[in-house]
Amino acid sequence: MSFTGTDFRGFQYQNKGRTVQKEIETALKKIDFYPTIWGCSRTDGGVHARNFVIHTLDKNPQRKLMDVVKGLNSALPEDILIKKAERVDGNFHARFSTVSKTYRYFIYIGNSVPPPAEPFCTKFFLNFDFEKVKEAASLFVGTKNFSAFTTSEGRKNGIEREITSISLLYKNPLLCIEVRGKSFLHRMVRFIVGSLLAYGRGKIEIGFLRMALEGKVDYLPFPAMAAKGLHLWDLKIENVEVFEKYEECCPLPLWPFENIKFKEII
Fold first, then answer.
1. 101-231 fold
2. Which residues are catalytically annotated?
């Protein structure tokens, strides 16, 4: 599935505000499903998801998956789309079976963002050094202490996370920072991107970043980047036995920025 996060307070159900989970569970009730789902990630309010996985239980496992996909999409709002449904073994869990997540953060470098792109990227019109950003990105790869790169809520879930890769992709005027790992703390990717840009602008020193990643800095001297530039781009799932599958594919790459041929900054 995929969703545009602009008008959501995130994926996970909350007492106030609109959430992706609540919308899907409401739609499931309309097509006679158990109305509880589990997601692969929480996602912050305003964050988009190109690929997202949920799982639930079906009251009627004999029904056609084509009917499930079409029934859900007819009951869901236009900012959520179910692309595929699978029947899997009982060991599958949307969160724990996801072994890797790829996030992409999009930055439009310039003063005026074209209106169709504006909800999906962050405008940045100040100069910064691409080489310095690339240099700083390498510091984040590996298992690090990310206590400074999250919120007080995020620190409740442990402070160490492993980043397997960070790539800087560029096609003027769009910069894409791609971050890959198994799991992420609250606002972690947005703080990482903010740190890279702060170093690229000379606002912080490389030594400060090293200390922060060793847990020697309590808080960063700047806020997380805006949520609208962040996309949960892709997922890797392992050890899942699929018994049946139905996919409704669009033959065109229509997700924002999906068809751009970026070049990696090396």
1. Alpha-Beta Plaits (3.30.70)
2. 44
